[in-house]
Write a structure and sequence with these properties.
Blueprint (H helix, E strand, L loop, with lengths): L1 H16 L8 H8 L1 H21 L11 H28 L13
Helix pairs in contact: 2-3, 2-4, 3-4
Length: 107
C-alpha cells in the first residue's frame, strides 16, 4: 500500500511540474462538468468524419463498411468520456472543481 501512495504522490508532483496545476481553460471545465456529453459529441463527430471518408473512397460506400464508423463512434466516445472523468479528477485534486456535491455521473 505504501508503494501505491508513493507512486500517486510522485505522479501528482510530476503533473504539477509539467503544468497540470494551471488554471483550467473553458474546454477543460466543460469536459470535467459534462464528460458523457463530451464523449458523445466527439464520438459522433469522429464517426461522421470516418463515414464521409469511406463514402468518398474509390470503392464507394457499402453496407459491409457500416461497422467501421460505428466502431469509431464507440471507441472515441468511450475514450473521451474517460478523459472527461479523468479531467474532473485532476481538477478536483487541484481544487478547481468546486461542484463536489455532484455525482461521478454528472448529475
Amino acid at each position: 500500500m505504501a508503494l501505491r501512495g508513493w507512486l500517486a504522490r510522485g505522479f501528482w508532483r510530476l503533473d504539477a511540474v509539467m503544468g497540470g496545476d494551471a488554471e483550467p481553460v473553458r474546454s477543460q471545465i466543460f469536459a470535467a462538468r459534462h464528460p458523457v456529453k463530451m464523449g458523445v459529441r466527439v464520438g459522433a463527430a469522429m464517426g461522421a468524419l470516418f463515414a464521409v471518408l469511406l463514402a468518398l473512397s474509390p470503392e464507394g460506400w457499402g453496407w459491409d463498411a457500416v461497422g467501421i464508423p460505428c466502431a469509431v463512434i464507440v471507441f472515441f466516445g468511450v475514450f473521451m468520456t474517460g478523459m472527461g472523468f479523468w479531467e474532473r479528477r485532476r481538477q478536483r485534486h487541484y481544487g478547481f472543481y468546486k461542484e463536489s456535491g455532484r455525482t461521478e455521473l454528472g448529475g
